[in-house]
Amino acid sequence: MTHSVIFDLDGTLIDSAPDIHASANTVFTALGQPPFTRAEVQGFVGRGAPNLVARLCESRGLPHEGPEFDRVLARFLEVYEGAQALTVLYPGTRAALEALQAAGCKLGLCTNKPLAPTLAVLRHFGLENLFAAVIGGDSLPVKKPDPAPLLETLTRMGGGPAIFVGDSEVDAETAQNAGLPFLLFTEGYRKTPVEALPHDAAFAHHDALPGLVAAFSAPAVP
């Protein structure tokens, strides 16, 4: 059975935490704030840029809503859109995507990262032509774990049997909410033990992914 395989991005296909960390420090040190550790920033990744910046502001006693917050968020998005120097693909990612495509799978991307930096990082790694549909965190009025972005990605891919691949609590919840099987990449940004996250299969290296997809029988979505 040929599947549509929909991926999360940050913590699943790319390790972008170093660039997110650097961008946050560029913005907040300019405001006179002490720098964040990577662990502080990474702990807020996963629910979109507005939530990330709001939590960073809150942790420093700065407004996390209103005009001042909006200016900080806009500056972060400006800095981060061009930040790819420290971001890397996880080992085996490109080969796994190409193998899935060669096997007849349609590939999609559903991320809470805003669409502009999403497309920029896909271009940076030469991956933009592998995905039949890309939904960013600002593509719809809602973000993951609401199922709408994931289901909209699948709709744009033509529907049919599908699997969602992600790394986090948000991704696991999104898959459950959408009624799709979930494959968990264990080396991303999750905070919860693997056994505590609902998933249909787990993998630590992308080399394993084509075999998992090939062996998986996913139910069709109406």
UniProtKB/TrEMBL annotation:
<comment type="pathway">
    <text>Organic acid metabolism; glycolate biosynthesis; glycolate from 2-phosphoglycolate: step 1/1.</text>
</comment>
<feature type="active site" description="Nucleophile">
    <location>
        <position position="8"/>
    </location>
</feature>
<keyword id="KW-0460">Magnesium</keyword>
<feature type="binding site">
    <location>
        <position position="10"/>
    </location>
    <ligand>
        <name>Mg(2+)</name>
    </ligand>
</feature>
<dbReference type="InterPro" id="IPR036412">
    <property type="entry name" value="HAD-like_sf"/>
</dbReference>
<keyword id="KW-0378">Hydrolase</keyword>
<comment type="function">
    <text>Specifically catalyzes the dephosphorylation of 2-phosphoglycolate. Is involved in the dissimilation of the intracellular 2-phosphoglycolate formed during the DNA repair of 3'-phosphoglycolate ends, a major class of DNA lesions induced by oxidative stress.</text>
</comment>
<dbReference type="GO" id="GO:0005829">
    <property type="term" value="C:cytosol"/>
</dbReference>
<feature type="binding site">
    <location>
        <position position="8"/>
    </location>
    <ligand>
        <name>Mg(2+)</name>
    </ligand>
</feature>
<keyword id="KW-0119">Carbohydrate metabolism</keyword>
<dbReference type="GO" id="GO:0046872">
    <property type="term" value="F:metal ion binding"/>
</dbReference>
<comment type="similarity">
    <text>Belongs to the HAD-like hydrolase superfamily. CbbY/CbbZ/Gph/YieH family.</text>
</comment>
<protein>
    <recommendedName>
        <fullName>Phosphoglycolate phosphatase</fullName>
        <ecNumber>3.1.3.18</ecNumber>
    </recommendedName>
</protein>
<dbReference type="GO" id="GO:0046295">
    <property type="term" value="P:glycolate biosynthetic process"/>
</dbReference>
<dbReference type="InterPro" id="IPR037512">
    <property type="entry name" value="PGPase_prok"/>
</dbReference>
<dbReference type="InterPro" id="IPR023214">
    <property type="entry name" value="HAD_sf"/>
</dbReference>
<dbReference type="GO" id="GO:0008967">
    <property type="term" value="F:phosphoglycolate phosphatase activity"/>
</dbReference>
<dbReference type="Pfam" id="PF00702">
    <property type="entry name" value="Hydrolase"/>
</dbReference>
<dbReference type="InterPro" id="IPR050155">
    <property type="entry name" value="HAD-like_hydrolase_sf"/>
</dbReference>
<dbReference type="GO" id="GO:0005975">
    <property type="term" value="P:carbohydrate metabolic process"/>
</dbReference>
<dbReference type="GO" id="GO:0006281">
    <property type="term" value="P:DNA repair"/>
</dbReference>
<dbReference type="InterPro" id="IPR023198">
    <property type="entry name" value="PGP-like_dom2"/>
</dbReference>
<feature type="binding site">
    <location>
        <position position="167"/>
    </location>
    <ligand>
        <name>Mg(2+)</name>
    </ligand>
</feature>
<keyword id="KW-0479">Metal-binding</keyword>
<dbReference type="InterPro" id="IPR006439">
    <property type="entry name" value="HAD-SF_hydro_IA"/>
</dbReference>
